[in-house]
Amino acid sequence: MLLASLSCLLWGSAYPAIKQGYLLFAIDSHDVPAQMLFAGLRFTSAGLILLTASGLLGWKLLLPGREWLPVGVLGLTQTALQYVFFYIGMAYATGAKCSIMNATGTFFSVILAHFIYHNDRLSHRRIVGCMIGFAGVAAANYGPSIFQPDFKLAGEGAVMLAAFILSAATIYGKMISQRINVIVMTGWQMTFGGLVLTLAGFLTGGHLQGFTPVSVALLAYMALLSSLAFGLWSTLLKHNPVGRVAIYNFLVPVFGVVLSAVFLHEAVFAWKNLVALVLVCAGIWLVTAEKTKGPMACNV
Questions:
Q1: How far, in Å, are 79, 80, 187, 205 from residue 62 at the CA level?
Q2: Phi first, then psi: what are they for 127, rounded to 5°?
Q3: Which SS3 state, helix, strand or coil, does residue 45 take?
Q4: Distance between CA atoms of 265 and 261, rounded to whole angstroms?
Q5: CB of 234 within 8 A of CB of 182?
């Protein structure tokens, strides 16, 4: 589907966009407060865009009283906590490797769904897909030897942790979305999580410099890509079987790697990156090609 591919293209473009944002706003790899502030501004804006669009469509913006707490918890986990680790990881690893590491969220979702949904068990196909996918992750982190992997806990490790948090939070969000409008829910959780990140960044001494038309335009684009990609993806999931849409998840690391090579001049054609990309994409295809009932984590 064209719209599914567009959503994956937008998510894939986030990897080079974040790396460029670090350069434009002069954010050092060790400056976690500034990274939180950068992420906070992006997701607060993205959430407000979704809420504004929902209001223009005539949807009810106020949540039922009992839903504010669950949506707040979702904002703390799916946006705030996840993106603390994701943005830290992006500061220490290349955009290409981060796009491959973050793809593990699909495999984590499949594994978690096995233990949560009685009708969404791990099949032999999915087990093989997860094994192939994680083999791709291992290939991406191949170093001088098997005992010296090209892997940093603060880089690739943080991105994988973010992917796991997203997978768990996506399942939690799926439960909440059965009761309320998913777009409105996402607008509020992004806004709340973004405000938490922004406040945490300010209180810990974070500040951004280098505000120019180019850097502001980049920040605006990142907010728009989050809101537009999620809006398109949610609409597709609403009108199509989950498995038919989720299979396009394999395009996210493809676009992430290719766009990182184009805009960041990263070595996408290094053998380990190509092997990792092929294996991860094959794994995603295997675990999503059959009928899927559980949610698939996909958010950058």
A1: 20, 21, 11, 33
A2: -60, -45
A3: helix
A4: 5
A5: yes
How far, rounded to the nearest angstrom, does the alpha carbon of residue 233 sit from its chain's CA centroid?
13
Phi, psi at residue 145, to the nearest 5°? -155, 170
**pLDDT per residue as tens digits for the range 6-20:** 988 999 999 999 999
Do residues 278 and 111 lie in contact, with contact meaning Cβ atoms separated by under 8 Å? no
Backbone angles phi, psi at 93, to 5 degrees: -130, 160
Q: Output the CA angle 224-6-290, nearest 5 degrees.
A: 125
- What is the C-alpha to C-alpha distance for residues 46 and 172, in angstroms, rounded to an integer? 21
For the stretch 139-192, pLDDT in tens is 888 877 666 788 889 899 999 999 999 999 988 888 888 889 989 999 999 999
Please give the radius of gyration of the chain, using alpha carbons only, rounded to the nearest integer: 18
Whole-model pTM: value is: 0.90
Domain boundaries defined on the chain: 2-289
